């Protein structure tokens, strides 16, 4: 009921704002038409009206008119996206038949999956890969993670991605938390933007591109899409369709291991890895906003190279799920003697343990000592591992996607800054 009222209220506010902007735009347009002023002025007012709408929408989303906790969604379509068959899109609609709140481009959904043999629901985050303006269904695009080729049979594949691919089918219902995440495109900016997607990491940046397209943005956009070959690449037709329609959007594909069937110049633009040297071939300068999502090695090397090229940190936006791969902050202990340790007390479990730099994050330390802490993305995005800090300070090894509640810390990306007591 509250949810329905919230959504209804949000929709009414958005509609009222839309009508207001439309009214202002129409009357200004009429005046300009009468006075026979040129089309550039009309375009300017059109842009202003659109910007006002975008700002209102961003404010509404930031204020959180979505849903609390988990909500049931039905898988209405499952679509294999690549030749290898290891990447599938899942289209989701609310099982309650209610409204689908919009999201910010780049955000993700958090799933709670009842995987058999697991002591508790498995929590995983997947980026939304479609346009934020689509209010009929959400889409996530998931790669089935296989064990490394030389791992033998002892190492399992990705727990959650295997569950999605092998167990979930059209008609099934899943528990989903509302869209969240701080890796979002700044829709208010007018600066040129570079969107970089490596492998299935293209999903959040594809959503960003679609948001710009839907908004009719005139921003200069360069989309770089890195994949192994034509067998692995996904959703490129959707990007190509936008790039062909819009002069301001430029699309380049890189294959690191093209097969014999891949033709350079037709299927892809460059062989090899995406590096800053490649970017320099296509970009006039480093003065762009960069949004990067891909495999950890690519994220680390590319963000480092961008910094060396002189791109300020404020213009480098990235996201990685999984153990922190792009370090933005020095671990507190890196400035200390390796032998020095601090005491970590897990008060609820009644355990006190020493922490050294090699112990990693507080979540790693807790798990190694048999302390169960619910966790999801392990990258400071989903907030599942937020735990009350009763005493002491922590330092984050990567930027948290959003600040945890006052007095809580995200254990998956936190290291102790001295002796600490945690409510775990
Ligand atoms: N919101 C998020 O945070 C999301 C994150 N992801 C992450 O994106 C990643 C995508 O994985 P996957 O699809 O398997 O990607 P791939 O392993 O297929 O990698 C994509 C491309 O990047 C290349 N690459 C590897 N290392 C580098 C490097 N150092 N510099 C430049 N390019 C490099 C690969 O080359 P080669 O393989 O030939 O070495 C390949 O061509 C996953 O780690 C996933 O967790 C995915 C979705 C959403």
Automatic annotation (TrEMBL):
Top-rank EC class of the record's enzyme: oxidoreductase
Recorded GO MF terms: 2 iron, 2 sulfur cluster binding; flavin adenine dinucleotide binding; metal ion binding; nitric oxide dioxygenase NAD(P)H activity
Swiss-Prot/TrEMBL keywords: 2Fe-2S, Dioxygenase, FAD, Flavoprotein, Heme, Iron, Iron-sulfur, Metal-binding, NAD, NADP, Oxidoreductase
Keyword Ribonucleoprotein attached: no
Reaction(s) catalysed (UniProt annotation): 2 nitric oxide + NADPH + 2 O2 = 2 nitrate + NADP(+) + H(+); 2 nitric oxide + NADH + 2 O2 = 2 nitrate + NAD(+) + H(+)
Enzyme nomenclature, EC number: 1.14.12.17
Protein name, as recorded: nitric oxide dioxygenase
Native organism: Roseibium aggregatum
